[in-house]
Specification:
The protein is α+β, with helices and mostly antiparallel strands. It is built from 24 helices and 23 strands. A hairpin with a 2-residue loop joins strand 12 and strand 13. The chain starts with 10 loop residues before the first strand and ends with a helix.
Length: 676
């Protein structure tokens, strides 16, 4: 299952079925030539308006006129975890609301529907003065982007985000309709959604029902939707053309060789060390008891998923062959630039990017972020109330007027906070920060206040009132003066770290601005030498990918592109005695009722990455035929290199979801309402 992060966005020439295309720049001619299909604006607009983005880091789609939304179980797991109690473990046991009043409201979920796209490139570029330093350029660009977003929000009432594309060569204003009343309708058990556990994660064949259905409400009633996906009743066939509409999080395909080496030698090993540490921490906490295991489960799952994904990415970068094509393309570009007097100066961008990697190495371990919900809440309140004192165009981006509602929804979430888990996490973070900065560092000594990490964390957790939503709300409304005078120990800690947090953030943003400007020159060079076209790197905004249902060869064996329910039961029997391969009781009890030949999972060559989880897969007619939930192990290099030789996107089949709802979960009325 894919994780989500972000990166710069740059142009990439496409090969095979490669490409994560903008909805306002679809590859119409490519589709016509390769697949004899020409999408019109009505087809594209309907698919765009039927797609949604989850603020928790995934994708989804509207699947009925009365507000039903389809996504993955692992995308919904954050909400399932927050809605669970010791008596009602929704992640493990699943859930089915048989009436509207049984649908459970998510505490802090926001879904975004992309309503419009506007090119604002000229206005953004005009705001940056010629010859401006990277620091001044950053402030000028941030200011005009905040102004554009604020004006759009005031005019339309829609969430308004300016998205950087092609490394700063283009800027598009994306307007979203927000849905913040989102309720749980149905979720299967973890044993069905994550059947095969970590052993099968990123593998294929698969037999997973990684699906969850929610519903969006407006004014306390199920939303009435004009755009939603119809549901195909036919299983997919090998060779069939399919499309994926989702929000890929990030790719790094235009990265220079120097930038990829930084990832290989520095950043990815650093991240993996962090993930392994956190995995052990969560496992140890879970061993303290059944309730502790439940509380840690969602975070542990995310950590393990990320650890396996990053391990695959690093393995790909450590393969020398990965760099052969990258190095050859880069050398060819630079050679042709040197021979072109008009564009010769653009070659300096590669040198600049190489130097930037040294700065990124220097900043890699510089942090004062303490990954605990309570500390993060404290820091966000400190920053919010301080930024409120500034003009809107001078604020940090996430604290502008256009972003305020989303920020407040997160800060005032009713989701439970478990103080025992918080203490364990904060203890480890204080210990880790002490190692990174050194125990004699003056800031560390101020943070610890004469105590060890464990004792200091205990005092902070015991003394803070931030667990109380009403206290958070009161503090935010009282403003900066009240925050500065607060005697809450967690707020006081955040205030002590605020200056260092801002210093580190400002330095990193200056580096990012230099890198953005350098990659803009790379973009120009690529366009001059290789021509226009292609697609920008992913930005966790809506894109369209396409491919065909297709098997592959692995270790000399042909892997069929589809699996069925019979295979799931056989897989469970073959691994009898291994907990991760035990199908849930509901499946075993319903085996005689299930049409075992019904398609359950399939693979295709569509180009996906983290953030695409939950994306709808549709056919030529725009009907839903599947639900993206994973990629195979060979796809983990897709951050920086696409290949359709073995890499595949893995989906739950649409017909499989309907079969499970009817035959296993006795959800006849829900199944009947889908696609209508």
């Amino acid at each position: 299952m894919f994780l989500l992060t972000t990166s710069l966005s740059l142009p990439v020439a496409s090969y095979g079925d490669e490409g994560m295309y903008l909805f306002n720049d679809l590859p119409v001619e490519t589709l016509k030539q390769k697949h004899n299909f020409e999408p019109d604006s009505q087809w594209a607009d309907h698919l765009r308006l039927s797609s949604v983005r989850f603020n928790s880091g995934g994708s989804g789609s509207f699947i009925s006129s009365d507000g039903l939304v389809l996504t993955n179980h692992h995308v919904a797991s954050d909400t399932l975890h927050k809605l669970s109690t010791p008596e009602l473990n929704l992640i493990e046991d699943g859930y089915l609301a048989k009436t509207l009043d049984q649908e459970l409201k998510a505490p802090d979920l926001e879904l975004n529907q992309l309503v419009s796209i506007e090119d604002v490139t000229q206005r953004v570029n005009d705001a940056v003065k010629p010859g401006a330093s990277s620091d001044d350029a950053l402030k000028q660009r941030r200011g005009v982007i905040s102004t554009i977003e604020e004006e759009s929000f005031e005019k339309t009432g829609l969430r308004s985000d300016v998205v950087t594309l092609f490394g700063g060569a283009k800027y598009h204003l994306y307007r979203y309709k927000k849905y913040t009343d989102v309720r749980l309708v149905w979720a299967p058990e973890t044993k069905a959604a994550f059947f095969g556990g970590d052993a099968d994660n990123f593998e294929y064949p698969r037999y997973n029902l990684d699906a969850t259905i929610m519903r969006v409400y407006e004014d306390g009633k199920p939303a009435k939707l004009d755009n939603f996906l119809r549901w195909s009743s036919e299983p997919l066939q090998e060779g069939e053309l399919v499309f994926v509409s989702g929000n890929p999080g990030r790719t790094q395909r235009i990265f220079t060789v120097a930038a990829l080496k930084f990832l290989r030698d520095d950043r990815l090993p650093y991240v993996l060390d962090f993930l392994r540490r956190k995995e052990i921490l969560m496992q140890q906490f879970g061993l303290e008891g059944t309730e502790q295991a439940r509380r840690a489960r969602d975070e542990l799952f995310g950590i393990q998923n990320a650890r396996k994904a990053y391990t695959g990415m690093l393995a790909g970068l450590q393969d020398p062959q990965t760099f052969v094509t990258k190095q050859a393309r880069e050398e060819k570009l630079l050679s042709e630039l040197q021979d072109n007097q008009a564009n010769k100066e653009l070659a300096a961008a590669w040198t600049e990017i190489a130097e930037i990697q040294d700065d990124k190495r220097e900043m890699l371990k510089q942090t004062v972020s303490l990954r605990s919900t309570l500390f993060d809440t404290a820091m966000q309140i400190v920053l919010l109330t301080a930024e409120d004192l500034k003009p809107n165009d001078q604020r940090l981006h996430e604290f502008t007027d256009a972003s305020r509602d989303s920020k407040l929804q997160s800060l005032l979430s009713e989701a439970p906070i478990y103080e025992d888990l918080e203490q364990v996490k904060l203890t480890d973070e204080l210990s880790r920060l002490t190692v990174l900065r050194g125990a004699d560092d003056p800031l560390i000594q101020e943070i610890l206040d004469g105590k060890g990490p464990r004792e200091r964390a205990a005092a902070l957790i015991e003394g803070t009132k931030l667990v109380d939503v009403a206290f958070r709300k009161q503090l935010i409304e009282a403003g900066n003066e009240a925050v500065e005078e607060s005697n809450d120990p967690m707020i006081q800690l955040a205030r002590k770290l605020e200056a260092e947090y801002r210093r580190i953030r400002e330095r990193n943003e200056q580096i990012e601005e230099r890198e953005r400007q350098a990659y803009a020159q790379v973009t120009q060079a690529v366009t001059q030498i290789e021509g226009t076209g292609g697609y920008p790197d992913a930005t966790f905004t809506l894109r369209l990918a396409f491919g065909t249902v297709k098997g592959y060869i692995e270790d000399g064996k042909h892997i069929d592109p589809t699996t069925n329910f019979a295979g799931a039961y056989q897989h469970a029997e073959a691994h009898k005695g291994q907990d991760d391969f035990d199908l849930p009781e509901s499946w075993m009890n319903a085996k005689s009722e299930v049409d075992l030949q019904t398609q359950l999972n399939f693979v295709c060559t569509a180009d996906i990455i983290g953030g695409n989880s939950g994306s709808p897969v549709v056919n030529r007619d725009g009907e839903l035929v599947g639900l993206i939930f994973d990629g195979n192990i060979q796809s983990l290099t897709s951050d920086y290199l696409y290949s359709d030789e073995q890499a595949r996107a893995v989906s739950v089949s649409g017909v499989g979801i309907i079969e499970a709802l009817r035959s296993i979960y006795n959800a006849q009325s829900l199944a009947d309402s889908i696609g209508k």
